[in-house]
Write a structure and sequence with these properties.
Layout: E1 13-22, E2 28-31, H1 36-47, E3 55-58, E4 68-73, E5 85-89, E6 94-98, H2 101-114, E7 132-140, E8 146-152, H3 160-172, E9 177-181, E10 183-184, E11 187-188, H4 197-200, E12 204-205, E13 223-224, H5 229-241, E14 245-252, H6 257-262, H7 291-307, E15 312-316, H8 323-327, H9 329-337, H10 345-360, E16 364-368, E17 381-384, H11 393-397, E18 402-404, H12 407-410, H13 421-426, E19 442-449, H14 457-464, H15 467-476, H16 484-500
Parallel strand pairs: 2-3, 2-4, 4-6, 8-9, 8-19, 9-14, 14-15, 15-16, 16-17, 17-18, 18-19
Antiparallel strand pairs: 1-7, 5-6, 5-7, 10-11, 12-13
Helix pairs in contact: 1-2, 3-5, 7-10
The chain binds acetamide (ACM) and zinc ion.
Acetamide binds near residues 318, 319, 368 and 385.
Length: about 525
């Protein structure tokens, strides 16, 4: 018996048998028309790096055909939702069965991981055994509908090609949400045609802090970057091809200094402001008393909605200071008119108004957990990142939906000393003691990468890999089937795939907590994590 195939996330059920199927120049893809997209993605995967001229034939029949890879629609045997699939590999044929295109696509991704890592390049792979698929029978479906990754492109800008490369890895790992943090105090990154200064001014800063939140050191050079709407559309289409929803985040009403530097009239004081060059701040806040703030956000969100088909639009809501509101005559007048007792209630007034704007356009608001309030719009989705899980239990009981991204478990901007791989892997998104009937309110897990200290892709990949793989497995694999030792071995094998794609990672001997590396892990919050040279 051969070693068990190395697939991340681990499938729900897998049985391995003797023998293999070889993809070669006689292989054909047979597909039922509704699943054609998955067939095209498979053809590209097999074609880009081989000399095989693999053809796709549309067929209504489900009978396996010799030498073919058949992608069949099956709503009788594959019943665990749109992302479920069965994969059967025999010496004679391969069959992927799914009820929906997403499931068929994930069947293709599993097949991809069963092929040799060398197929991840676009260089022709001539070694025949690279095209061998082990005989398996797999029955697979996800634990959670939301398996997300967030990238902060505001603190540091990363170009389109980096994002596309990440999206392809996310798809390979069966992750289905790319949460794109597009604005913050340190930069506005998405072109808004009606407000050109957001790019002319807001996408540029004079310098950047280096060394950590309390460091006086500056990098000594300006930083800038933005995505045109065309680039954003290209990213959305590329993600859509890989069953990934791009959820854009326009952070409001705090974390808004880049917008206020561009349009200071949106603030309580009128400014002036500069795009921040340091990272620990809570100052840039839109004025909630002035109507022009809502006009601006309506216009911005209209353009965002036009670019991003996602049903869910993220409006941030985190770390908003109420200081300027307390001193502002317009905000005070708003509190009076709306009968609000505390300045903090202005945030709920604001969030609910934006939620209505989005509802009117058929979209749903999402925010970080600071948006939580008893009277928050009932359909708003909350991303939990800080505070005690206990606090969200009453909201879960009332049916509020949550995505889980707790700071101490999945904030992978932290050093491995503070957040070792095992701790990420062992985190479970369903709070202990949550009644079974409410488990459905936990939509899933999302791993954010904040980039205050991530200035290049080498650092990015170091922070991401292997921890992203751990989150992918938590999002998909049943809790009872998770096994850390098995995961680690498979993650190490996945590294070969990353290398083929020109990506790097943290070696496995660097990702565990070792007492001698630090007796005070918490200090690592204050200093920039280090990536060894070499
Ligand atoms: C956050 O980390 N401020 C959501
Ligand atoms: Zn104000």
């Amino acid at each position: 018996m051969e070693a068990s195939p190395s697939i991340i996330p681990a499938p729900v059920k897998l049985s391995l048998s003797q023998g293999s199927f070889s993809v070669d120049k006689t292989t054909r893809i047979l597909v039922a028309e509704p699943l054609l997209h998955a067939a095209t993605m498979l053809k590209n995967l097999l074609h880009d790096n081989s000399s095989f001229d693999i053809t796709i034939e549309e067929t209504a029949g489900n009978a396996p055909d010799r030498r073919s890879i058949a992608i069949v629609q099956d709503t009788v045997r594959v019943t665990e939702g749109p992302e479920a699939y069965n994969l059967a590999i025999t010496p004679d044929y391969v069959q992927i069965a799914a009820s929906k295109p997403q499931g068929a696509f994930y069947g293709v991704q599993t097949l991809r991981q069963l092929l040799d890592p060398s197929i991840e390049t676009t260089v022709p792979v001539t070694r025949a055994d690279a095209w061998n698929l082990p005989c398996v029978e797999i029955h697979d479906y996800p634990r959670f509908p939301w398996r997300g990754f967030m990238l902060d492109t505001a603190r540091h800008f990363f170009g389109k090609d980096t994002i596309l490369r990440l999206l392809d890895v996310l798809a390979c790992l069966k992750m289905n949400v790319f949460h794109w943090h597009l604005t913050d105090d340190q930069g506005w990154r998405i072109e808004i045609k009606k407000y050109p200064k957001l790019i002319e001014i807001g996408s540029k800063r004079k310098d950047s802090q280096v060394g950590g939140y309390i460091s006086p050191k500056m990098e000594g050079k300006p930083h800038e970057g933005h995505y045109t709407q065309d680039e954003a559309r290209e990213i959305v289409a590329y993600a859509q091809d890989r069953c990934i929803t791009v959820v854009p985040e326009i952070d409001t009403p705090g974390h808004s200094t880049a917008a206020l530097a561009s349009y200071p009239e949106l603030s309580c004081t009128g400014g002036p402001f500069e795009v921040f060059t340091k990272f620990a701040t809570m100052k840039g806040v839109y004025c909630i008393g002035k109507e022009r703030t809502f006009t601006f956000l309506q216009d911005v969100l209209d353009e965002i909605i036009d670019i991003f088909p996602s049903k869910i639009i993220h409006i941030g809501g985190d770390e908003t200071s109420t200081l300027s509101w307390k001193k502002c005559p317009d905000c005070k007048a708003r509190m009076k008119a709306e009968n609000l007792g505390k300045a903090r209630e202005l945030q709920t007034f604001f969030t609910n108004r934006v939620a209505r704007m989005l509802q009117d356009r058929g979209r749903t608001l999402m925010g970080w957990n600071e948006v939580l309030a008893a009277d928050l719009a009932p359909d708003a989705i909350v991303q939990f990142w800080t505070g005690r899980t206990k606090r969200i239990m009453p909201h879960l009981a009332k049916g509020r939906q949550f995505v889980m991204s707790p700071f101490f478990n999945v904030y992978i901007d932290h050093d491995y000393v503070l957040l070792p791989l095992k701790m990420v892997y062992e985190y479970d998104p369903v709070p202990k003691n949550l009644p079974e009937s409410q488990h459905k309110n936990i939509l899933g897990i999302e791993v954010p990468l904040w980039t205050e200290w991530v200035r290049n892709t080498r650092r990015m990949y170091w922070q991401l890999f292997p921890r992203l793989l751990a989150v992918a497995e938590t999002g998909w694999t049943p809790r009872a089937s998770k096994d850390y030792a098995s995961f680690k071995a498979r993650a190490e094998q996945f590294y070969a795939r990353l290398l083929q794609k020109g990506m790097s990672f943290a070696p496995m001997d660097r990702v565990e907590r070792k007492w001698y590396r630090s007796l005070l892990p918490i200090l690592h919050l204050l200093f920039e994590p280090k990536v060894p040279q070499g």
